[in-house]
Design goal:
7 strands, S-adenosyl-L-methionine, SAM-dep_MeTrfase_MraW_recog, rRNA processing, seven-stranded mixed β-sheet, Rossmann fold, 46% helix, SAM-dependent_MTases_sf, cytoplasm, DNA polymerase, domain 1, alpha/beta
Length: 334
């Protein structure tokens, strides 16, 4: 199969909840000189939608995957210098903006999880439905692979990864089987892992909940790419990058991500004053306003158009004032 092209990117990638993202970001992106950070550029579908909808907006597109950056760059070339690609992880937003001389931005979009490109390129090893090398790195130029994790972590560490990041009920059983299997020969292929997982999960359980290896693959992907740790750093950094009136939209695809997003937005949308104070000091007032009631999901029309929207949970907020100094200090100390 040849190298994917910009046309492939456009035809293969339908951005999830695009119109809803545009509606939520729109009031901030109409400001003169508005800049948006697409913190998870992927194949550029959301950014293309933003650049088409808002004629004056500039987008800084961040991705750790060099192949995604190349595809998106080709796809978005018609927009000229309104689009700036950056090879980085989204927790590097402050450094990226510093290098570009941008003190703040009007919008941040995060579309979390594995991208369409990574799922569709079977040799990357993200998909349990196809046999491929056990890689799963979003940036294939650096870091541990899934094979490294499976072949070097001890049984207890493996079980923890599967239980915490995959919420896998049979984590201990799978970890034990992996350690037993690798003693014969190192694991190198996704099909080997699928066979191990399937054998460890009781037949009755396999009848529900989708593919039996789904949770194990999710857990390994999160571990290999340090996804949750990066997200935990990226969320406050993204919020701090917003100018007053700026907006952040985050799309999550599993409960661990959504929990972190909910918590980060709630911190900004909740008074930091002690609950027993009769009057709230102005310095303790919230600095974010939630734009969604809970997490929004895809409706039937979106699901029919884009099956990958099935598990999406969207949350959004607007910055109403600068972050109080005492909360900035607390974050730096943490």
């Amino acid at each position: 199969m040849g190298e994917p092209t910009a046309a492939d990117a456009s035809s293969r990638h339908t951005p999830v909840l695009l119109q809803r993202c545009l509606d939520l970001l729109g009031p901030a992106l109409t400001a003169p000189g508005a800049v948006m950070v697409d913190a998870t550029l992927g194949m550029g579908g959301h950014t293309e939608g933003v650049l088409r909808a808002f004629d004056e907006v500039r987008v800084v597109g961040i991705d750790r995957d060099p192949q995604a950056l190349a595809l998106a760059g080709e796809r978005l070339a018609p927009f000229g210098d309104r689009f700036t690609p950056v090879h980085a992880v989204y927790d590097e937003i402050p450094d990226v903006l510093d290098r570009l001389g941008l003190p703040s931005v009007q919008g941040v979009l995060m579309d979390l999880g594995v991208s369409s490109l990574q799922l569709d390129e079977t040799e990357r090893g993200f998909a349990y439905a196809h046999d491929a090398p056990l890689d799963m790195r979003m940036d294939p130029t650096r870091g541990l692979t899934a094979a490294d994790v499976l072949n070097t972590y001890d049984e207890r560490a493996l079980a923890r990864v599967l239980h915490v990041y995959g919420e896998e009920r049979f984590a201990g059983r799978i970890a034990e089987a992996v350690v037993r299997r690798r003693a014969q020969a190192p694991l190198t292929r996704t099909a080997e892992l699928v066979d191990i997982v399937r054998a460890c999960i009781p037949a009755a359980t396999r009848k529900t909940g989708g593919h039996p290896a789904k949770r194990t693959f999710q857990a390994l992907r999160i571990e290999v790419n340090g996804e949750l740790a990066a997200l935990e750093r990226a969320l406050p950094a993204a919020i701090e990058s917003l100018a007053v009136g700026g907006r952040i939209v985050v799309e999550s695809y599993q409960s661990l991500e959504d929990r972190l997003v909910k918590r980060a937005l709630a911190v900004g949308a909740t008074s930091s004053a002690p609950p027993d104070l009769p009057v709230e000091p102005a310095t303790h007032a919230p600095y974010l306003r939630l734009l969604t009631r809970g997490a929004e999901e895809a409706d039937a029309e979106e699901l029919a158009r884009n099956p990958r929207s099935q598990s999406v949970r969207l949350r959004a907020a607007e910055r109403t004032r600068p972050t109080p100094d005492h909360l900035r200090t607390a974050r730096r100390a943490a």
